[in-house]
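Margin note from the TA: students keep mixing up input and output lines. Inputs are the sequences; the output is the structure of the whole complex. Example:
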Amino acid sequence: MEIPQGAKVREGVKMKLDTAALFSSLFRKRKSETFSAQLQEEAPQGRMRRQTRHRHRWGDVIPLAELQPGAKGIIVVVRGSRKVTQRLADLGFTPKTTVSVVKAVPLNGPIEVAVRGSRLAIGREIAQNILVQTKGL
Amino acid sequence: MSSCHTTTAPQKTVSKEKADLTIALAGNANVGKSAIFNCLTGLHQHVGNWPGKTVERAEGSLHFKGYNIDVVDLPGIYSFSTFSMEELVSREYIAMEKPDVVVNVVDACVLERNLFFTLQLLELQVPVILALNQIDLAKAKGIDIDEKKLSDLLGVPMVSTVGIKGIGVYELVEQAIKIAKGELTVRTEEIQYGREIEERVRKLQLLLAEASFSYPTRFVALKLLEGDDEIKKEVQKVNRKIVETADEYAREIEEVHGEPCSVVICSERYTIANRISSEVQRTKVAKRTTLERIDDLATHKILGYLLMVGVMFSVFYAIFSFGGFLSKIISDFFGTFKPQTLGVAEQILWEGVAGGFVAAVTLVLPYVLPFYLLLTVLEDSGYLPRVAFLLDNLMHKIGLHGKAIIPIILGYGCNVPACYSCRIMETKRDRLTAAFVVTFVPCTARIIVVLGLVAAFVNIEWAFTLLLIDLAIIFVMGRIAFKALPGESMGMIMELPSLRLPSRRVVVNQTWARVKSIFYMVFPIYVVGGTVLAVMQMAGLLKPIEGLLAPITVYWLELPAIASVLLLFGVVRKELVVVMPAILFGTTNLATVFTPAQMIVLAFITMIYVPCVATFAMLKREFGWKTALYITISEIAFAVVSGGIFSRILNGFWAS
């Protein structure tokens, strides 16, 4: 009889932790400045210096995925596997290029991006790794 | 300017005699290469408004002013890196086979990105002609291009074309001949990169000078800096040192620019492309066209989905109602012919040949014709990439991304080209998952079985229910494959081409090409299949087969014994399941042979039990024997198990 009771208690604890994590993640997502801090945490040692420099020169960077439809941004850096970054570069996503979000499918769907006169559909997970800055346009 | 079909005499077959010159068509995806190819050769290479249709090179030939010209249609690519098969195929073709002229088809609406490719093509040091295509669309968008200036800046001859209408294609061939004859020289001046890159390229070129490659040394040097694996391998064979030096140089460039070397080179290329395009291109602010408004609607976050459901529903409704109407007219017409009493041999022939033919004409053609017509319209309009955009989320649930919806939709036409088009997926795992899912998509053949058995003799609601059940199966199977298959997946990166009004010429040609294959390839199968069946019936071969499979068909699936024979024939072509009973029983009223529940179960099993022979062959070609067999066996097992359960549920339903 004791064992199920114990399990119940543990479940309750787990639930509590999850909601706390959820709240903090929601809160974090709204603040764009924490993103660059996050970025530095994630960045491998060798690239640290570069990211910091970008921050000084251009101000804060946010993922393309977080731009509202109609908004523009200048590409700072494209992260991801070699295959993805090369593909994006070939399609015109090179640093200092101005891109604009045309449409976004809700619920983390893909975004439609205008770049160099063409329209591309980009999955949200990839757009999350295209970092843009919105100042200095 | 004149239409190509009147000015050139297309030769349908590739002639044995050696061609006088070879023209290769190269360029970005979806710029109209295949349209120009079709125009030149009179062939019916697949065209449509979505990127990635041509995955292998196609060849054709034409006779023009006494010249035998070979035309090669290369798959559409954005660059010459080797991260995708198509890019490698195109690059190797141009470098190794050395076509006399490369026609670089350029989309006038997206000049900058297209020029990015042109610059790389020039680096391969081949004679290039620019075909500035879709000039009419560009004008409508308010884009005005100074052709003379563009031609001068690049140093290559240029022709403006409208591929789907055949405008400018005549001049294109004339220019190509002039170049091949040496009457027109093409400048081979290289584009210049930044100092840091140029210095190192020159040093590498000196190192490379001793060996000979199939590519120009400057191209090899640049690709070494970009870290191209294929080129590295080739150079490594000659001198390991050079590769190490190149890697060192690439690191130095990365230090200076703070970007990987390949990105730096890409950036500089784009800078040049941008400079050229902004110099030759004037953009007026054009009024928003109706098509652009439709585009807004098509990708709208709510209305887009409504439109999509509406389009899909109307397509099926149109096929069902129009097909049924047409089928009835034709079968009434054939009903007037009654076979007279004949001898044994004549009877076999009559039942096989005439029965097969009549069944094909009355059951198959009326549905296939409108379906292919509408599918071509959808493809040519550019609507499919919009659907892919909207359904990206849904496709993620089965581990794929939005692009996978394109093979699935094509699968409703025929699984074979649909499996082939799975090549638009980037990774092997995605291609396999997509192809596996596609084999569950009811192609026209299976829809005909559903219509011929269920809609005709039970009711239309059950036919729709079956199609919906199949949709659920597609989803569940995709989900299982997603969990079971190892490997990585890449997110969606897809061009959204401009919507356009489908060209009447393209739609008619494509539909005809597809329907024609039914006349040439499928009708003979019905006739042969019908004859074989009739002979087997005479020889008394059907009973042993029925007996052998009775435990499955009769006891587990609760079908009449003859179902085993039908399903065996269905492996060849799924429609045979509904065509054969007409031959066997001499009646098209199948209600005398099957109960309603049996018809539904038979149609259900036909939809999922096995990929047909042609699809199997395509699976084998794309993924190998083992995978094709795995897919087939798992589908048979799944169909048998679920079919039996389904039959019991149905019988319970009918009893109550």
